[in-house]
Specification:
The complex is a heterodimer of chains A (200) and B (201). Chain A is built from 10 helices and no strands. By secondary structure, chain A is mainly α. Chain A has one domain. Chain B is globular. Classes of the chains: A mainly alpha (200), B mainly alpha (201).
Amino acid sequence: MMEAAIVIFSAVFVNNILLARYLGNCPFCGVSKSLSSAWGMGIAVIFVITIATATTWIIHHFILDPLHLSYLQTIVFILVIATLVQLVEFFLQKNAVALYQSLGIYLPLITTNCAVLGVAILAIKNNYGFIMSVFFAAASAFGFLLALLCMAGIRQRLETVILPRPFRGTAITLIIAGIMALAFYGFSGMDATLSSLVHH
Amino acid sequence: MKTAFIDFTRGLWEQIPPFRLVLGLCPTLAVTSSVTGGVGMGIATTFVLVCSNVLISLLRPVIHPKVRIAVYIVIIATFVVFVEMAMQAWAYPVYQLLGIFIPLIVVNCIIFGRAEAFASKNNVLRSFADGLGMGLGFTLSLAVIGLFRELLGSGAIAGKAVFGPSFLPCTLMAKAPGAFITIGCFLAIMNGIDLRKRGIK
């Protein structure tokens, strides 16, 4: 139980997927212009990352590993994720029209969001069990939502400020991300401290 | 031949990724804490970009437009697996340095973007030139960012200390905050040059 809590804390704050692991920066710069689109993208990412990590975990441990095909991991995982995103899209279109209308435009973008493939590979690399992988994936995606919302809030305020021309757009977004990363850097090492406290 | 040369040079300055063509930020942020990482990533990406551009251009007549995205993903992923295995065999230290960012070349938007925007519409020679130009431009950008961050972050160039023992490195430059701020500033400088050229202050 404690172990799961540490994995979750670590994934959200210490190793925040956007600000410490550098994954998923394209949507971070692209859809952080308004809070409403940040919510949409964030929820869609939580949904897809959790399902994708659960599926790829099963495929890795029950198909690729027993058949010694681990070297095909990359190609299999990306295909699974692309198919899964399509399936989720069809499913939402049929059964949850309201949700589809709010998330619909973000779903196709998620296939090339490196956070999805990144978390799936990290869950395998870290040797997590199935339950732990799901916790890790959901927490990482929640960290993504958190950072995305912070950035969207800041950028909305920034609209009223007159910036020097060269800094407008992605440049200032990256610099703000750097300052946010500095804040999150304060958490570094906390997961190791916590787990050593638990074990003693 | 001449058009191919123009396609080649376009990636080196006019549309140099990731500055003019703002794609592929994740690997740029992640691997540029040292020159070695930046150059290694650049070369791996160039290989995948050139091969996928050539193959997609060759297969243009047989790929049905409706399934093209899936076909592109399979082609790109295949070459990424090649690179992954080659680096494991012949460049293991770089492989360890780059970590999960080697399999993540699959989702690098530059490769996908060039396949969709260029290779699917042009002949093999031009696609090859475009892939090579874009890849080398990307390598160059990563090398420059890596040089800057490694120099300030650990006082070294490609692992060799240059400032002597009294130098106190600004460790933050080699970590995440330094990555974001450096690339943000580089981007602003490139925008500034561009604006000045067009006469806007």
